[in-house]
Amino acid sequence: MNESSAMPKVALDTVGCKLNQAETQLLARQFAHAGYRLVSAAEAADIYILNTCTVTHVADSKCRRLLRWARRRNPDAVVVAIGCYVERARQELAQIEGVDLVLGNSEKQHLLRLLEESGSLRRPLHGQSDSATHAGFRTRAFVKVHDGCNSFCSYCIVPLVRGREKSTPVDQVVADVRDRVAEGNKEVVLTGTKLGSYNYKGVSLSGLLQRILKVTEVARLRLSSLQPDEISAGLIGLWRDGRLCRHFHLSLQSGSDGVLGRMKRRYAAGDYQQAVALIRGMVPEAAITTDIIVGFPGETEAEFQESYQLCQQMKFARIHVFTYSPRQGTQAATMPNQVEDKVKRQRSQHMLALAKESAQNFRRRFLDKTMMVLWEKQTDGVWSGLTDNYIRVYTKSGKDLTNKLLPVRLAEFGKNVVRGEIID
């Protein structure tokens, strides 16, 4: 048997949050350790796996499109859909032509075994494959530390597809971080549905971070997201350790107290402002990024303007703009005064313009400064990487910069990108 037949090719693709990315990376390692060859989603594969998202109708549409695209590209492959979309609408995905298998969140951790037991995959003759190191996992690793949500915001489908909150044992998280460092990862991103709610046998997120920083040699540790009511001086004080990335993704969703109340968020706009002020007072050059929903049921023009003006005041490094999308099974889906699609589009465009301006202003603040950049990948001789405060930097180089953490002067801002010069 030749090598290609001995090592079936597996493509894993992801839509959605960093928690999904963490789970996809874990699956990739399982397949690689079992001897399968990992390839990119654009390559021919024996099996194509999509880890789905269903947080909005846009995510749903993207998932369906990717599954159909995978079937056209790999007519003889096994096409598998896993994750949150399956939890919400299993039959809907199962009926897409060309999808062979659908598995929910509780099932996907057993994906490899289920595929082998069903005969869809045959265990390779050779042992462990090293393809995980060539599939984009060597620079930034995502480690899942929390899952589920108990909050039940009125618009959010996540508690229905992810279940109740549960935290990964501290020792397991530490072991995962150590393993990722041993594999060569320079940055580890801790992720979870509600990361700030982490609590395992009395150990909070602050305690977890202290343990990781004390007993591992991770070069960079980044948090995926937090809620404003989870910010405290004790937590932010940990950023005295320079290994913690100066980047806080702090979900806002709306700058209007009226809308926040209907959303069943657990803070007001003033609370959010206080959290941001605390972060900036203790970590002055931190990037603060956020999520905004426009067109929530009943949102008036005045309430939208409250959101817009608060976003202006916050000077975010990045704003992820979501147009409200009704999710069946959530309270907001049946609320009166649903906003017209035309109005949603107009508000979305207005907020997106502000998001672009805000991101540009943040990046310009750091021109001529020298910052450490973790270089990730290159396209046609142009490399891209991230500063710890989440500025993507580009440079031309004939050298292999993959996974190098190097000092870089942020030299120029043009065509909406930052160009850097590596300092020898």
Word description of this protein:
The protein has 424 residues and is α/β, with parallel strands linked by helices. It folds into four domains: 3-131, Response regulator (Rossmann fold, 3-Layer(aba) Sandwich); 138-224, Transcription Regulator spoIIAA (2-Layer Sandwich), CATH 3.30.750.210; 241-365, Transcription Regulator spoIIAA (2-Layer Sandwich), CATH 3.30.750.200; 370-422. The chain is built from 14 helices and 19 strands. It has a five-stranded parallel beta sheet with strand order 2-1-3-4-5, with helices on both faces. It has a five-stranded mixed barrel with strand order 15-16-17-19-18. Strands 7-6-8-11 form a four-stranded mixed beta sheet. Helix 4 (84-94) links the parallel strand 4 (78-83) and strand 5. Helix 8 runs parallel beside helix 9 (205-215) and helix 13 packs parallel to helix 14. The radius of gyration is 22 Å and the shape is globular. The chain starts with a helix and ends with a strand.
Brief digest:
By secondary structure, the protein is an alpha/beta fold.
Could you please say which CATH topology of the largest domain applies here? Rossmann fold
Q: Report mean pLDDT, rounded to a whole number.
A: 93
CATH superfamily of the largest domain: Response regulator
Please indicate the count of domains: 4
Largest sheet: 5 strands, parallel
Radius of gyration: 22 Å
Please name the CATH architecture of the largest domain. 3-Layer(aba) Sandwich
Topology, number of strands: 19
| Alpha carbon gap, first and last residue | 48 Å
The computed structural class is alpha/beta
CATH level 1 name of the largest domain? Alpha Beta
- Binned, the helix content reads 25-40%
**Low-pLDDT runs:** 1-5, 132-136
Major beta sheet, strand line-up = 2-1-3-4-5
What's the number of helices? 14
Apparent shape: globular
* Beta-strand content bin: 15-25%
